[in-house]
What we know:
The complex is a heterodimer of chains A (466) and B (253).
Chain A: H1 2-7, H2 10-39, H3 46-82, H4 84-92, H5 97-136, H6 153-170, H7 198-222, H8 228-245, H9 247-261, H10 266-277, H11 279-313, H12 318-359, H13 362-371, H14 375-413, H15 429-456
Chain B: E1 10-21, E2 28-39, E3 43-47, H1 54-61, E4 69-74, E5 77-78, H2 84-94, E6 95-98, H3 110-121, H4 127-139, H5 155-168, E7 173-177, H6 185-202, E8 206-210, H7 213-216, E9 221-226, E10 229-235, H8 239-252
Parallel strand pairs in B: 3-8, 3-9, 6-7, 7-8
Antiparallel strand pairs in B: 1-2, 1-4, 4-5, 9-10
Helix pairs in contact in B: 3-5, 4-5, 5-6
Amino acid sequence: MMRSRFRDQVPTLLVATLAGTFGAFLLQVIGLLEAVISADDVAGSSGTVALMLAIVATVFIVIAVYVSAIVTANTVSTVVAGRTRLIALLRLIGSSARAQRAEIAREGLVIGLAGAALGILLGSGLAFALERVAVATGTIPEVGFDYVTPSVLLPAAAVVLTTWLASWVGSRRVLRVRPIEAIGNANEAARDELVARRGRHGVALAFVIVGALLLALGVVVGLASPLGVFIGLVGGILSFTGIVLAAHVVMPPVLRLVGRVLGGSPAARLAAENAVRNPERSSRTTIGLVIGVTLVTTFSVTMQSYRELLLAAAADRPGMEQAIDEPLTITISIFTVLIGFSAVIAAIGMVNTLSLSVLQRTRELGLLRALGFDRAQLRLMIVAESAALTVAATLTGLVLGFAYGWAGAQALLGSIQGEPRLVVPAVPWAVFGVILVAAALLTIAASVAPARRAMRVSPVVALAVD
Amino acid sequence: MQIQPSDLGLIARVAGLGKRYGDGAGTVTALDDVSLGLRRGEFTAIMGPSGSGKSTLMHIMAGLDSPTSGRAWLGDTEITELSDSALTVLRRRRVGFVFQSFNLVPTLDVRANVMLPFELDGRATTIEERAWIDELVATLGLTARLRHRPHELSGGQQQRVAIARALATRPDLVFADEPTGNLDSRTGREVLGLLAAASASAGQSIAMVTHDPIAASHADRILFLADGRIVRDAPRSTPEEISAFMLSMESAA
Lengths: 466, 253
């Protein structure tokens, strides 16, 4: 049983390992850069640079850990949904709900530890490889950097704690499994999927309203001072948290809209229904990706606006324009890649959740086969479902990101020319293009394994009584 | 000229059917040279103790499984020779299923579940079919439930939805696998009455696998299986007669 318990947790381990690797890698590279800079420190400014680098690294690590925590909580929820029968059976023979939940949280701790350890090894290894390449090509001198530093333990500890915590949060539904579910018919739609959560709605609404007001205030203050961006930042975090909390309300309309585009074939219509009719499941699957895309878009819209404003200001001095543009473009690109890593973690989370949820629907797929769905239709259904989820998440992320990005740019840059002015949001087409291509790839990647598995399902499983 | 099953008034037929699992010393024989015909418009019960091969027989007759030897027909179509995709289309258009665990699609409401076979076929319903479905839904007492989803229904209601779905396409044959296995006895009787009525009034051919003598007593004909063979072919019987025969089979074994 232990083996099967951990097998469905592989996605959790993957996410923890990725976050751990990212954190360790960034800190090692920062440490390496500090060593390189202080080695030929003539200006004595290495302290400031080191501090700046550390702050930047912290921000990106926090974002990556935050996204991976949300992805982990959602993955654990999906895992628990798949284990309902087993949990019910254990409850039936006398285990308490609390003990069952503690067991899953304990798994989270073990997985977090394993992921963090793997992350340190992989991240440090990657940083070492990068150093060797840089030294070999003469980009940096040999500084004899020591990779055994206590500082890498910080992101590792963050990964352990968040995986543990996210497992605890994600395992909430264990409490709602009733022992009786071990007996009798297994209708896979648990009632709790539809239970209204008034409390959660209220909190989410309050977050969105307060956040939006602060965001507006930030924009207004931004007309007078760039400090408005900090008010806007708080507003952005609050309102976005509200949206994440209310994902099961926000996502279905988007999914319905996207589902309509899929077309009228029975496979496409069923896929659209699948994506919409279980709001809890579909919001679990998509929200990580929404967060990832929103972050990337917000960041790149703000930065692109900033860049275009600077370039416009320097337009009459050609040499200046060149001098500003190059380092700025490089900086923005690096930051976009770093923030994009969170989107990658989210994408992997989505692939996993979709796989697991297809795995859990074996009986339903067998039923469709028994009723006359052929294999190609089944595959089409899974691909269409994957596409609906990916497209909906990407669109939502792009729209939200664009709004936040514009608000950010306005709050940051509204007063930059000494007088209040409206900032026209710049569209980072290259980033949008990358996001769309990545979304297309993700649709395929997310559906390959589940579709293959679905096609292997025999119609006889629908008749079996388990 | 070969005699077709339909010439004999049969809706389904199997001849010399055998199904074995594994090989060598560990071979398990689920079906051993079974030949039978199901008559059009009849409600047939297939009975037998656990492991008698009744489920395997049903799976093969419904095109869900393939036999090791022998042949099976649905109507005049020999299904043992069909490809997977041809079998899929056959199940879609000519077979209906009612399962023990109801097996409705949880994401779809009652109406969509009943319409599913047409959805899967990618076609709209004709006026005549719609009238039939409306009649079915009314007969089964589901009119007020059309917008509900499966988990909002009781077991008996879910099974009635499954029956509506199975009958909606007017299939050649409806297979019912222990349809009352998950229901209380009163609801179970109701469901059996509905199946018997579909057979008597609409001429629906039904094959029901069960080990419950009371369920089997609703059928026009009862086939008894033991150790992969048909041991008795009985007309309509009372639960007492069926139980008595089942007990005699037990003691003979």
